[in-house]
Amino acid sequence: MRFRSSLSASESESSFPVSIDSAGERGGERAPARRAKAAGAQASLGATELYFRSLAGSQPLTREGEVAIGRRIEAGALACFEAWVRSPIALRELAFTAEDVEHGALSIRDLLCEADANDPEADACAARLAGLLDVARALAARKQDDEGVEIALAGLAAGLAELRLDPAFEERIERSLRAAAAAADKAERAPIEATLAAIARGRRAVAQAKSELVQANLRLAVAIAREHQRFGVPLLDLVQEGNLGLIRAADKFEYRRGHRFGTYAAWWIKQAIKRTILNQGKPVRMPVHLTAIRSQVVRARRDLVQERGREPTVEEVAERSGLSVEKVRVIGELALEPLSLDAPVGEEGDTRFGDLLANEEPTPADMLARRRLIEQTRELLDSLQPRERELLRRRFGLDGNEDETLEEIGQSFSLTRERIRQIEAKLLEKLRMRSRQRELGSYLEG
């Protein structure tokens, strides 16, 4: 499906006559500079803004415009099936299909589009298709120039065009045509290639008409997507899913029923968006009974904010809602929405949330400094007496041990708590002096 794209800066400039002075400049500014400026301004816009700007000039279709497109879709589909039924090869394939259905090798519903096969009117569609296949089988056995065959072929093509056949079934028929063209000689190949060309023209006509129908209603998908922004799915994702629903609506729209396409497409767009929200909106869903309690808490909090002009405390919300303080606190924690690290942030949405988080993992430089600190600490402790070294290790929890209080160490060494504190202070001062001496020595040696 083709969508209209805006011209680039260079293309739009080359479409109009310009005057170039002797200095090779235009309007006081060089052409490359103008193009670079335009490209830079466009690059500064986010994808969302660019997409919305591209839709600014689109206009919805009138009822007459929708009817005209609907007729073009019908005409294109009819051209495809007229090429089918006028080809002996395709007609023979339809006859073989009728035999497969009759013998139970193939289900008639497998020949219908999946959505139509599950439609409430599927039985009626299947019965109509079965009747058309029987007609094709009867016509394949008759000569093309027999009286009444032309009228029957036209009726068969019109009947097939009214149904939505399974794409795999259509591809099978057309694949048999391509295989026959590849195996035929030059004289026999020409009519088969003409049939394939007619089918291709019909397909292009249908695709172009549906594309125009979709393009004229892209703003409708954006408007509906904006209404569902509060559910935690990025707007562009909602718009994309809405566009898929819009395409689905264009495939199924029947203008003869008298409905406006926008009214019909809105339902498909909403269904596509709601399905995406259910799948992506909340990774952890809250049970129904807690959802009701959460609504009660939210309502109480909102009323208190309006009355007092400030954020209420948990106790005030509990009193207003008639719930316990603990339950209000738990509901508040459950109501927190998980935030994806890939979620876009900023006005343009060009930055990911994860890019703004600090990396708490140590850098190689931090790891090297820590290793050096541990080595120096061990060297300084090794310079102390064994009992002094043991006291500091137990006091500060070195070598993976739990740090102990002055009272616990005093009991182990049979000393008072105050005496242990004095010894600790002296040992730390001794280590400080030796550390400074080492730093000064390394400086003098350097």
From TrEMBL:
<feature type="domain" description="RNA polymerase sigma-70">
    <location>
        <begin position="237"/>
        <end position="250"/>
    </location>
</feature>
<dbReference type="GO" id="GO:0006352">
    <property type="term" value="P:DNA-templated transcription initiation"/>
</dbReference>
<comment type="function">
    <text>Sigma factors are initiation factors that promote the attachment of RNA polymerase to specific initiation sites and are then released.</text>
</comment>
<dbReference type="InterPro" id="IPR013324">
    <property type="entry name" value="RNA_pol_sigma_r3/r4-like"/>
</dbReference>
<dbReference type="InterPro" id="IPR007627">
    <property type="entry name" value="RNA_pol_sigma70_r2"/>
</dbReference>
<dbReference type="Pfam" id="PF04545">
    <property type="entry name" value="Sigma70_r4"/>
</dbReference>
<dbReference type="GO" id="GO:0003677">
    <property type="term" value="F:DNA binding"/>
</dbReference>
<protein>
    <recommendedName>
        <fullName>RNA polymerase sigma factor</fullName>
    </recommendedName>
</protein>
<keyword id="KW-0805">Transcription regulation</keyword>
<feature type="domain" description="RNA polymerase sigma-70">
    <location>
        <begin position="405"/>
        <end position="431"/>
    </location>
</feature>
<dbReference type="InterPro" id="IPR000943">
    <property type="entry name" value="RNA_pol_sigma70"/>
</dbReference>
<keyword id="KW-0804">Transcription</keyword>
<feature type="region of interest" description="Disordered">
    <location>
        <begin position="1"/>
        <end position="33"/>
    </location>
</feature>
<dbReference type="Pfam" id="PF04542">
    <property type="entry name" value="Sigma70_r2"/>
</dbReference>
<feature type="compositionally biased region" description="Low complexity">
    <location>
        <begin position="1"/>
        <end position="22"/>
    </location>
</feature>
<comment type="similarity">
    <text>Belongs to the sigma-70 factor family.</text>
</comment>
<dbReference type="InterPro" id="IPR007630">
    <property type="entry name" value="RNA_pol_sigma70_r4"/>
</dbReference>
<dbReference type="InterPro" id="IPR007624">
    <property type="entry name" value="RNA_pol_sigma70_r3"/>
</dbReference>
<dbReference type="InterPro" id="IPR050239">
    <property type="entry name" value="Sigma-70_RNA_pol_init_factors"/>
</dbReference>
<keyword id="KW-0731">Sigma factor</keyword>
<dbReference type="InterPro" id="IPR014284">
    <property type="entry name" value="RNA_pol_sigma-70_dom"/>
</dbReference>
<dbReference type="InterPro" id="IPR036388">
    <property type="entry name" value="WH-like_DNA-bd_sf"/>
</dbReference>
<keyword id="KW-0238">DNA-binding</keyword>
<feature type="compositionally biased region" description="Basic and acidic residues">
    <location>
        <begin position="23"/>
        <end position="32"/>
    </location>
</feature>
<dbReference type="Pfam" id="PF04539">
    <property type="entry name" value="Sigma70_r3"/>
</dbReference>
<dbReference type="InterPro" id="IPR013325">
    <property type="entry name" value="RNA_pol_sigma_r2"/>
</dbReference>
<dbReference type="GO" id="GO:0016987">
    <property type="term" value="F:sigma factor activity"/>
</dbReference>
